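Just wondering, can you check both lines?
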Amino acid sequence: MLKKLNHIAIVVPDLQAACETYKTRFNAAVSALKDLPAQGVTTAFVQMADSTVELLHPLGDKSPVARFLEKNPRGGIHHLCYEVDDLDVAMAALIDQGATILGDGQPKIGAHDKPVVFLDPRDFTGVLIELEQA
C-alpha cells in the first residue's frame, strides 16, 4: 500500500527563521512560503533528492498546529506523509481494518495540490500519518 515516504512535517515557531536555518546550515533548497487556509497552516518545503521536510506554522488562531505549538513551544515533528497509489483504495482498506480517518473522513487537497487524509495516531503507535495520492 505505501509507495514511499513523501515528507516529514515539523511544526516551527518561526517559519522564516526555520527556512533560513535550513538554507544556511545545510545549504538546502527551500521553497517559497505557501499559505493553505483550508488546512490552517503556512508551509515551506526543504528539498532533498528523494523526499522533503515540510516546515509548518499556524495560519490563524484556529490552526490545527497552533495547539501543537502551545504544547511544544520550540516546535517538533508533527507527522509523516506517505504516498499511496490510490487514496480511495487505501482508505477503504484501512477503514476495514479499524483505522480512523481524521476530520470528516474525506480527502482534502494538500500542500502538493493532491488529495490527502490524516490517520488517527492512536491507530499507528502514536504517530500522526498523512496519506497522499501519488
